[in-house]
Specification:
By secondary structure, the protein is α+β, with helices and mostly antiparallel strands. It is built from seven helices and eight strands, in the order H-H-E-E-H-H-H-H-E-E-E-E-E-E-H. It has one domain: endopeptidase domain like (from Nostoc punctiforme) (endopeptidase fold (from Nostoc punctiforme), Alpha-Beta Complex).
């Protein structure tokens, strides 16, 4: 007599496999070390791209939108680095702002009475709040040893201007500290500027939280 549970079991296995493939494609590698290596490699690669510093407001698609590839500001480098490893900060930041609008800087709430997928993720103060909420907020110190490749650093340039960049696995010849991939007006460059300005944020972000394991789902369906 045929086993009536067999089709259900096969279907559950297929669904579980499909979900596993989806998760692998949409979320970063399991190992933080592996993820950081990919992230830093993406940051270093950005230093080979010619970009003009253009800070204009631009309407872009959502999700996955970007300003023209040959233009951008400091935040666009962080966005493009993460997108290279499969994380869309435009989407992640927007979803968090929608859910927690009052947690984000009042200045932008006055300018934009509602979330704006064209610009919200391109503002340094918004990224600082997002990384603090969804990543790891690390101590701000004057010790180079406290900063590692893949870390994100934000600075106060004075006169109300902020800046953001990412540490990479390169060090200057005469100093034991990691250099920064950033765009402060001359396009994406790797420079020894970690302590050139007042640091106001230090973060690590490994991407969105993974969905719950599908093991329980597979087990429950297999016993139906």
């Amino acid at each position: 007599m045929p086993n009536s549970k067999q089709p259900t079991l096969v279907a559950a296995i297929v669904v579980g496999f499909s979900l596993s493939v989806f998760v692998a494609a949409q979320y970063p590698p399991t190992s933080r070390a592996d993820f950081t290596r990919e992230l830093v490699a993406a940051a270093v690669e950005r230093s080979q791209v010619h970009v003009r510093y253009v800070a204009d407001y631009v309407r872009i698609p959502y999700p996955g939108g970007d300003v023209p590839a040959d233009t951008g500001v400091c935040t666009d480098e962080i966005i493009r680095i993460y997108r290279k490893v499969g994380i869309d900060l435009q989407k992640e930041v927007h979803e968090d702002i929608v859910a927690n609008f009052r947690e984000y800087p009042r200045k932008w709430r006055w300018l934009s009475p509602q979330p704006d997928t064209n610009i919200d993720h391109r503002r340094v103060p918004n990224l600082m709040v997002f990384f603090r909420r969804k990543g790891e907020s690390l101590p701000i110190t004057t010790s180079a040893g406290d900063y590692a490749p893949g870390d994100i650093v934000a600075w106060d340039l004075g006169n109300g201007q902020t800046h953001i960049g990412m540490l990479v696995d390169r060090q200057p010849l005469l100093a034991r500290r990691y250099m920064i991939l950033h765009n402060i007006g001359r396009g994406p460059q790797i420079e020894d500027v970690l302590f050139d300005w007042k640091i106001i944020g230090h973060y690590r972000y490994f991407g969105p939280t993974r969905p719950a394991s599908t093991t329980a789902l597979r087990d429950s369906r297999a016993h139906d």
